[in-house]
Amino acid sequence: MSEDKDLQHTQKFVYDFTEGNRDLKDLLGGKGANLAEMTNLGLPVPPGFTITTEACKVYLDSGDEPAELRDEVSAHLDALQQTMGKKLGQADDPLLVSVRSGAKFSMPGMMDTVLNIGLSDESVAGLAVQAGDERFAWDSYRRLIQMFGKTVLGVDGELFEEALEDAKAAKKVTVDTDLDAADLKKLVKQFKKIVKTEAGRDFPQDPREQMDLAIRSVFESWNTDRAKLYRRQERIPGDLGTAVNICSMVFGNLGPDSGTGVAFTRDPASGHQGVYGDYLQNAQGEDVVAGIRNTVALAELEGIDKKSYDQLMQIMETLETHYKDLCDIEFTIERGQLWMLQTRVGKRTAGAAFRIATQLVDQGLIDEAEALQRVNGAQLAQLMFPRFDDAAKSDLIGRGIAASPGAAVGKAVFDSYTAVKWSRSGEKVILIRRETNPDDLDGMIASEGILTSRGGKTSHAAVVARGMGKTCVCGAEELEVDTKRRRMTTSAGTVIEEGDVVSIDGSTGKVYLGEVPVVPSPVVEYFEGRMHAGADDADELVGAVHRVMAYADRVRRLRVRANADNAEDALRARRFGAQGIGLCRTEHMFLGERREMVEKLILADTDDERETALSALLPLQKKDFVELFEAMDGLPVTVRLLDPPLHEFLPDITELSVRVALAESRKDANENDLRLLQAVHKLHEQNPMLGLRGVRLGLVIPGLFAMQVRAIAEAAAERKNAKGDPRAEIMIPLVGTVQELEIVREEADAVIAEVEAATGTELKLTIGTMIELPRAALTAGQIAEAAQFFSFGTNDLTQTVWGFSRDDVEASFFTAYLEKGIFGVSPFETIDKDGVGSLVRSAVEAGRATRPDLKLGVCGEHGGDPESVHFFHEVGLDYVSCSPFRIPVARLEAGRAAAESKGSDSR
């Protein structure tokens, strides 16, 4: 403990903007690191300093800030005051500062910011004289009390909003800029009363107390519910902490020659180059991102202030070239003087990500390997979602700003609570608000899409939606949103009540009443070979996707196969780029009309009855495999022998019992039903997923696996004799010990030899097993003696490692586990690297130690999960297998994993 204290005393907790750089994001947070980087580039950044994330961690761990932090802050504040030639909060010419959060990863609106720190009853008059504008001074003071009251003192923000709305109503105006100094003085007085009543204390008049309390509030905002929810959603670690940036204030609310804005070096929605962003005259920065006043397009700044516009364009070019990426910029103009308040690599939509990556390659700013790292599988999956059918009949009711693309349909809801409640009940919802704020995050997550009547592409709703990949339309001004009455009214007078279905198009900004039909995405059409790169917008996107995918395919080591059970799925998978089938589930071939044959097999009392049932199934199984081998000719096809418990092929026990009971009451009982009921009772297990299934079926039911192996071998021989190239692999499921595999393999080898002799065809069939039980993973070295390949069944392995029954636990307590942070993500969605992953890793090492040429793959749905694909690359698997629609995602992530590991090796 004393060593920790000694280390703490040697730490530096505060850095001036001139001391840092963009590589110090772990220490200074993204905002602080980039403010330092812009300062070093000589750009106009207001002077200031950053309190490190390490100070935040100490505060959160101990409940108090580091002992030396106050002295360090005082020293940097003194230096700032010297630079500015004024003191914090002094009466005649006050220095004012902002206190803003800034974590390593962007968390827009999730943590606290307080502007205008240093204003008081005494200094507000000095600010008025200094600025020559009394209204500005009182407007700044009311903003401070409002933000400080809400974020630092915990006062309900609605109370301030209501008082502001009342003041505008009394003056009969609609925007706060129409309130004069006298109005604002009254509002300040009212705001102070609200603070006194709700917080139980007066608004602090000491400027240093304001700053210290604001710093603590920013630290504490790291662990607010909304911040934790956002981190879980974005998979941001919870132990990073936030930095705090103290920056000298510059004012965009000094009149029409002042303003504030947000700019992007490229369109974050489409990726196209041009002038993109929002500007708001006579406003402070929070007004833009909060969306409480509708902005003008950034291009209009040229006509408002040509000098500042030209300077901003030059700075944007400098920053994009320097960062080699789309940059998101916050700026303020104070009476014609441009100031840069923030830059970061901007969030973008999935389509923009692919376009920008290839554009930057063409401009020579990045290479193809870096372009591959600029996109990800989750973005590609978004691009494969359907879009609205332009040719369909639709009822257009409004239009807003296309903030985040996609086609979203759902029932209208007007608050986050309802969105979450209805979503949990299985309803698809569209969250409709005037504007969103950070408290709406849980509702935004629960919704299919977000619609707001205010705000632009840089509003809270737009930025957060883009980050989450949610469809969003903002600034639909012609739609009047009444959250209290839970309704929305169109300009034509149509009223949309809560529960009415609406459709929003985040690519065009259009809003429709009712459900609009959807059509396949152009990216899906491209993967299926029905679309090629051309001139229009969709074709341009397809071209960008094609280029990135082509590079990913060139560099990836992992091959990608499909989980497919029939020829139709196999052909689709092949169009999507599958390099074989990693899992063909033969139980799916026993459903429908064939269920009766399986029932006869289960009911068989004699060898003859059993042989008759198997003989009836053999030609049907063979036909299935012939079609599959033809669809996948020249590529490997891994066929899993029958896996599920037999009760799944029999009628439901309750339904059958009722049927038999009714028949007996009528004295016309069906003999077959009686035998079935006896069989159902006989096969009934308390936990069938851990009972008679998999390899155990092959050992207990004579001839079952032999019939399946014969069907595979005869189909392969027929295909080979037809000049085809079948590459069948036989997989034995649920093996827990090498002896099980040896017995089944001996029988299979004998059957294959019989078929080879009968057909005069040499069949190079390989036999392996699924590793889906902990014991199999722990004894993989022994099992590899009898197996030519392993395929990890990570779904069952996850169930057996965790002791979870997936169908039960996901519905019962997984939501609570995710909310409490026990899981960052479901272990069935992304592989549990520490537990399940550890078994996979050790099984790979032990298996290859026994058999160096052992082929290794994975066939659970983890095979299509982006993060899991990287893990499988790392541990040395040969392939992943997933559902057909996940194949492009797996291909892309396999390429990214290879490029990433190559980059790590070179470093």
Provide a concise account of the structure shown:
With 907 residues, the protein is of the alpha/beta class.
Give an account of the 3D structure.
Its cofactor is Mg(2+). The structure is a single chain. This protein is an alpha/beta fold and about 900 residues long. Helices cover about 50% and strands about 15% of the residues. The chain contains 37 helices and 31 strands. The model is unreliable at about 1-10 (pLDDT under 50).
Strand residue content:
15-25%
Unreliable stretches: 1-9
Counting DSSP H or I runs of 4 or more residues, the number of helices is: 37
Helix content: 40-55%
Provide the spatial order of strands within the biggest beta sheet: 12-22-21-14-15-16-17-13
Radius of gyration: 33 Å
Name the average pLDDT. 88
Distance between the termini: 36 Å
Largest sheet: 8 strands, mixed
Structural class: alpha/beta
The count of β-strands is: 31
Cα shape: elongated
Which terms would index this structure?
37 helices; 31 strands; eight-stranded parallel barrel; alpha/beta
Write the layout of secondary structure elements.
Layout: H1 2-10, E1 14-16, H2 25-40, E2 48-51, H3 53-62, H4 69-84, E3 97-103, E4 113-117, H5 123-131, H6 134-151, H7 157-171, H8 181-199, H9 207-221, H10 225-234, E5 242-248, E6 259-266, E7 273-281, H11 285-290, E8 296-297, H12 301-304, H13 306-323, E9 327-334, E10 337-345, H14 350-362, H15 368-373, H16 377-383, E11 387-388, E12 395-399, E13 401-404, E14 407-413, H17 416-424, E15 429-433, H18 441-446, E16 449-452, H19 460-468, E17 471-474, E18 480-482, E19 487-489, E20 495-497, E21 501-505, E22 510-513, E23 518-519, H20 522-527, H21 537-555, E24 559-563, H22 567-575, E25 581-585, H23 595-603, H24 607-631, E26 636-640, H25 653-665, H26 671-683, H27 695-700, H28 704-721, E27 727-732, H29 738-759, E28 766-771, H30 774-778, H31 780-783, E29 789-792, H32 794-802, H33 806-812, H34 814-819, H35 836-850, E30 855-858, H36 866-875, E31 879-882, H37 887-906
Parallel strand pairs: 14-15, 15-16, 16-17, 24-25, 24-31, 25-26, 26-27, 27-28, 28-29, 29-30, 30-31
Antiparallel strand pairs: 1-2, 2-5, 3-4, 3-5, 6-7, 6-9, 7-8, 9-10, 11-23, 12-22, 13-17, 14-21, 18-19, 19-20, 21-22
